[in-house]
Design goal:
mainly alpha
């Protein structure tokens, strides 16, 4: 018996949920709710369209609804990001920790765009379809997300601008 097409996308959904929710337990709830909704609405998926983008769109909508329901401040959720292969050096571990911290400081809108394009390797059009935004918005948010990530990694996001007095 062949496995259902949704099943093949579960690892990607899990990775994205953990990075998006920034909390293992919230991510598990998000995955479960997403899969339940996808299973119940599978008859609405258009054959020939991108199932992965459809599933990510469902996850995005479920996530937004869950956060609204919990009335949580999305900017301070921190816990876990996708598992990344790490070499056995102390500096690599520190760099990974810095990257996790910098990603967690991004807004949800910037983090989800960056993750979908960079980690999930989705095309701009797929990301736009999944999030319900125009491709131009995807591109501008991605540009801003990359710049803010650079600032956080360089320590520039917290730098205090001092006035020069002569």
């Amino acid at each position: 018996m062949d496995e259902h097409p949704i099943i093949t996308h579960i690892p990607r959904l899990r990775r994205y949920a953990r990075a998006l929710a920034n909390d293992r337990y919230l991510a598990d709830d998000l995955i479960q709710d997403t899969l339940e909704r996808a299973w119940n609405k599978y008859h609405l998926w258009r054959q020939g369209s991108d199932l992965r983008a459809w599933l990510f769109a469902i996850m995005h909508n479920v996530f937004v609804n869950q956060m609204r329901g919990r009335r949580m401040d999305l900017e301070i959720l921190t816990d876990e990001l996708p598992i990344v292969a790490v070499r056995d050096t102390q500096s690599d571990g520190l760099e990974l920790a810095d990257l996790r911290r910098a990603l967690s400081r991004l807004s949800v809108e910037h983090r989800e765009i960056l993750l979908l394009v960079s980690v999930e390797q989705m095309k701009y059009e797929e990301v736009g379809d999944a999030l319900g935004i125009p491709v131009g918005t995807v591109m501008s948010r991605l540009s801003r997300a990359r710049e803010r990530l650079r600032q956080h990694l360089d320590g520039g996001a917290n730098a205090v601008s001092l006035k020069v007095i002569k």
